[in-house]
Specification:
Strand order of the largest sheet: 3-2-1-4-5-6
Largest sheet: 6 strands, parallel
Number of helices: 6
Bound molecules: NADP nicotinamide-adenine-dinucleotide phosphate
Order of helices and strands: EHEEHEHEHHEEEEHE
Radius of gyration: 17 Å
Length: about 230
């Protein structure tokens, strides 16, 4: 179903469109009637076959400034999946390219995990801290370097005066939509107790944020609604 989007937001770019989160964002963006430009690695283009003829795909590394420049041209909004690990500053390179090359005034929405903190006021459970520690240790063990590169990517976004929102996802699961997730400025808020979000709803929150000015310069930590809407 194609609905008419509100005035202003017409063309959006999805950086990292071929991933699980990216594909859900493409779906939501098309349903809202946006023109969609998707960026993904060359080898992943086939994952977007279901959208053939409905979106424009620009293949390439998402930290390639030429690729991003072409992709974000004329876009009113950019939705960026920040890869949580990587080599050669992939995540921060992607964020920097989007910050530098999106048109001034464009809405920029980035995804990351709860472990990112903007102001240090997040309160993490002991279990959460243990999981992050083990994940970091394993990453070093298998030599997936730069686990902290998503942290650096977000630091750059937070320092930017662009119209950004950083959406911080909790544990993700697949399944039917439960509606727009709830959010808080800080992890530790009782509203976030469930610690789980459907991936389709993470994508919904990101796409809805394009037209929610209350989320500008916010880093909402989100969780899914329990009751299907
Ligand atoms: N998974 C979780 O439990 C969880 C929890 C909280 C927050 N998040 C956040 O949610 C977002 C999406 O995460 P996801 O786990 O659901 O994964 P996802 O949507 O499948 O996204 C993974 C992305 O990383 C890219 N990628 C994978 N390996 C790569 C590599 N070696 N080099 C370059 N790019 C690579 C993928 O591109 P290709 O399609 O080209 O492979 C894809 O765009 C992330 O920002 C993450 O921080 C995830």
């Amino acid at each position: 179903m194609c609905t008419t989007n509100r005035d202003g937001m017409k063309k959006v770019c999805i950086v990292g469109a071929s991933g699980k989160l990216g594909q859900y964002m493409v779906q939501h963006a098309l349903e809202r009637g946006y023109e969609v430009i998707g960026v993904c690695r060359e080898r992943s283009v086939g994952k977007l076959d279901t959208f053939e003829g409905r979106i424009t795909v620009i293949p390439g590394a998402t930290d390639d400034r030429e690729v991003i420049q072409k992709a974000v041209a004329g876009c009113d909004g950019v939705l960026t999946v920040l890869v949580p690990w990587g080599i050669h500053q992939y995540s921060s390179g992607t964020a920097q390219a989007v910050l530098d090359l999106a048109r001034p005034g464009a809405r920029l929405i980035f995804s990351c995990g709860w472990h990112i903190t903007r102001d240090g006021q997040d309160v993490y459970s002991r279990t959460f801290k243990t999981v992050v520690k083990i994940f970091g240790w394993l990453a070093r063990l298998i030599r997936v370097e730069e686990l902290d590169d998503q942290v650096e990517a977000c630091r750059r976004v937070f320092a930017s005066d662009s119209r950004w929102t950083v959406v911080r996802g909790s544990k993700l699961e697949e399944g039917e939509s439960q509606g727009l997730p709830v959010w808080s400025r800080h992890v530790g808020d009782p509203i976030l107790i469930s610690n789980i979000t459907r991936r389709v709803d993470f994508a919904l929150f990101m796409v809805a944020a394009l037209e929610n000015d209350e989320l500008i310069h916010e880093a909402p930590a989100i969780v899914g609604r329990h009751d299907p809407q």
